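Notebook, student rotation project (T.W.).
Task set for the rotation: take a protein with a known small-molecule partner, predict the structure of the complex, and write up what can be learned from the model alone. Partner molecule chosen: pyridoxal-5'-phosphate. Sequence and SMILES entered below by T.W., checked by me.
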Amino acid sequence: MPLEANRVYNFNPGPGTMPLPVLKEVQAEMLNFHGSGESIVEISHRAPQYAEVHAQAKADIKELMGLGDDYEVLFMTGGASTQFALLPLNFATKEHPGSYVLSGSFAEKCYKEGANLGVAEIAASSKEGGYKHVPTQDELKINSEAAYLHLCYNNTIYGTEYHYIPETNGVPLFADMSSDMLSRPLDFKRFDLIYAGVQKNLGPAGVTLVIAKRDLLAKSPEKLPTMFKYSTFLNKDSLFNTPPAFCIYFVGKVAAWIKAQGGLTVMAERNKKKADLLYAAIDNSDGFYRGHADKDSRSFMNVTFRLPSEELEKQFVAEAAEQALCGVKGHRSVGGMRASIYNAMPYEGVERLADFMEKFRKAHA
Ligand SMILES: *Cc1c(COP(=O)(O)O)cnc(C)c1O
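Predicted structure of the complex:
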């Protein structure tokens, strides 16, 4: 089946693939947004048309996550990487440090920002062995004095994901969900703060979602610069300064698309079906493909695997691209392949990749 408008199947980890209906809607509205005679990027962020976009995006995200009025959605900038620094600046002290679970590259980067400030400690690490699993509840050393326990819920580079929510005995639970945000239902109320750069699963790079308990967000120290304080975003409804309006508008459309598909339960069913297909292709390959992640930590979003040689890996990437299967090269720190199969990756794309894997194996095993 030919792909519409000569598009490819985009397995890139981020920016990631976006739903085609959303891209088309954005295209159709570009010159004249809701009868304003302007595009969404030209309109004032104080205009009523924009206010509606802003409020609806927040409401849809909270509805999808099943969160109530005690939580707030913030639209921030600087990517997830900026959150790595803002978390300790706002919440950690020497007496009440941030406690970090190291499960991959981004988890480590986040920990380092806290460590540079002298307010971080490590609760667990799965670095030994190459981040093949996420630490289990039994591996976590939870300090009851910690300001928070920080997790990276889906490890984009290594292809591992949590399949449980840690019990913290009252320590606030924070999570980086940049690469699995809104991909499945979870008991989100058990988290005190969740953040995500949206460019993996939800929109264009440029806005970072922070979804957290309002009473927590209010606690920023007074002495911090205005734009570094969560309380500024809370008190001004993320409109203290000019927001990344186009990104928020786009994320709102993706949230509405997820709702129309049937919400997070439907996303999870589809995502699991896609992941199962690729993991089966790995597991039934007589060792030709070797998955990086331990089975109980396998990600539904990023499927990582190696081939028998680097030579074959190069050939795999090149031949896959000829079949319009793009972006399957793994991160340099793990090597091999990584197929990112976010919400908007259609089942047919994954089926095409699994077929290609089978043919490639038969030709080279
Ligand atoms: C991509 C990614 C980041 C970095 O996000 P930026 O928005 O580029 O700063 C952080 N954490 C995870 C889990 C990621 O996948």
